Amino acid sequence: MSENDVIITYESLFDLLRIEKNKEELQKLDPEFFNQVIGYLEQKKAVLDKKDDQTNLFVHSEQQKTLIQLENIKKILKDLHDRREKKIIHMSVIKARTGTNIIDTSNMLSIEKDFYDELNSTLLSHRKNTLFCVLNGAIPKQNNTKISEKSSNIDQNQTNNNNNNTENNKGNTNNNTTNNNNTNTNITPNTDPISASETGNEEEQNSNQAKQTSSENSEDTEEKPTNLFSKSESGSELNQDQPNTTEGNLRIRILSQLEEIVGPDLEIYGPYDSGNEVEIPSELAEALINKSQAVRL
């Protein structure tokens, strides 16, 4: 549609709204009303898209006026639509209740007529399945087809979401496994801190050092459980305010990055990065394991 075809103006829109307000009947609109409105709005937006030359006071003033008009036009269109919609709904209710064929729909636009027919069909179906059943002593019917369709759509959406989460978790698990393998490959065994000069001079000295080394290794072995226990204790310092931090808790390794989580004790856990080893309530840990977001240690 060219700009010359646009016959809508700010004043004509205002007059249409005024008449629609003052008349109870639905007023006639041009079949091309919406196309004409779109063309008119495009004209106004073209004025705003002009380069704002600060030296040209006329252009600047015109743009300010157009901006105000656009806001008012949107309010007029919304009010006009709401009033026509209300009248069409009222006509549909009368049609459904009385079954009369004298409802005049000639002033409806094609899209409004479709809305009227669809609404009338819905109202008639509702009255048939509720009021007429009750009057005949029957239990009101419910449209099980639509309910089953909605349930099917909901289940399908949930299935798709679960499949997406499973695929993402599998990808994160594979990445973590690869990273762990690379880490294990790069680990080098600890070298004996005892130098060759200390062990290669005398047999007696070697024997003493061997006994001393054996004794030290034995002491280290005995101390290891204490060190691991102390690490476990320090790892759970974040939840010191929770009673019995070991009983009822489970130690897991996080497989994917997690935001803050509210546990069953209403405490906030996290956020956690992939690979973190944490001790959290068993109920929360099992939920993460079931979602493939963590593994038991």
Description:
The chain has 297 residues and is mostly helical. It folds into three domains: 3-135, Methane Monooxygenase Hydroxylase, Chain G, domain 1 (Up-down Bundle), CATH 1.20.58; 143-177; 229-297, 3-Layer(aba) Sandwich (Ribosomal Protein L9, domain 1). The protein has nine helices and five strands; from the N terminus they run ααααααααββββαβ. A three-stranded antiparallel β-sheet has the order 4-1-5. Strands 2-3 form a two-stranded antiparallel sheet. Helix 1 runs parallel beside helix 3 (57-98), helix 2 (33-49) packs antiparallel against helix 3 (57-98) and helix 3 (57-98) runs parallel beside helix 4 (110-129).
Summed up:
63% of the residues lie in helices and 6% in strands. It has 297 residues and is mainly alpha-helical. Strand 2 and strand 3 (268-269) form a beta hairpin.
User: What is the tally of beta strands?
Assistant: 5
Shape: flat
Largest sheet: 3 strands, antiparallel
Radius of gyration: 39 Å
What's the number of structural domains? 3
What amount of the residues lies in strands?
5-15%
Q: What class, by secondary structure content?
A: mainly alpha
What is the name of the CATH class of the largest domain? Answer: Mainly Alpha
Strand arrangement in the largest pleated sheet: 4-1-5
Number of helices in the DSSP assignment: 9
Which CATH architecture of the largest domain is right? Up-down Bundle
Summarize the amount of helix as a percent range. 55-70%
Do you know the CATH topology of the largest domain? Methane Monooxygenase Hydroxylase, Chain G, domain 1
